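Sequence, C-alpha cells quoted for completeness.
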Amino acid sequence: MSCGDPHETDCREVLAEVYLYLDLECSDQRRGIIRKHLDECSPCLREYGIEQEVKALVARCCGDETAPEELRRRLRAKLAELVLEADSRELLAE
C-alpha cells in the first residue's frame, strides 16, 4: 500500500513493521521514524488503527500468554512475504 504522497519512509515499510511498533520490539529511533510517518500519513494511520484493534482483541483473548520465539519468527517472515506479494501486485497494476 502506498498513499501516493512522498514521505521520508515508504508506506509499505511502515506497515510491514507496524506489529513491531505496536509490540515495542523496535528501537526508539525506529519507533520515532514510524510515529512521524503515522502522524503525517492518514491512510497508514487508518491501517495502524485497524492493526491496533486486532492486537487489542488478541490480547483480550489470550491474556498474558506470549508466543514462542519460533512462531514469532515464522509470522514475521510470512508477513514480510505477504507485503512483497502485495508490492508485486501493485507494481503489475501500474
Observations:
- The chain is about 75% helix and 0% strand.
- The chain has one domain: 11-93.
